[in-house]
Description:
Layout: E1 21-26, E2 33-38, H1 43-57, E3 62-66, H2 70-73, E4 83-87, H3 98-106
Amino acid sequence: xxxxxxxxxxxxxxxxxxxxxxxxxxxxxxxxxxxxxxxxxxxxxxxxxxxxxxxxxxxxxxxxxxxxxxxxxxxxxxxxxxxxxxxxxxxxxxxxxxxxxxxxxxxxxxx
Length: 111
């Protein structure tokens, strides 16, 4: 009697993946939005976003509701004069209108 069996090799699989972060602001009443892609989520990229958003706003002002992530609370940040930070309570993403946009964007990208 001959018994056949197979050995399945164990190999480490590394899926190449490129990550990016979308920084965004949305005006909840009109739906106007400002989105920009960055390679990291850190204070330096957030500062670049603030500077870019400030230019996009021109002479308008914005109250930017943000969470308390380290990138948003860094003492190194220089807030443009036309952007006023409004820090939401810790662990309360449901209070921030941009979170609903992130949910819509992420839904088709899962898996």
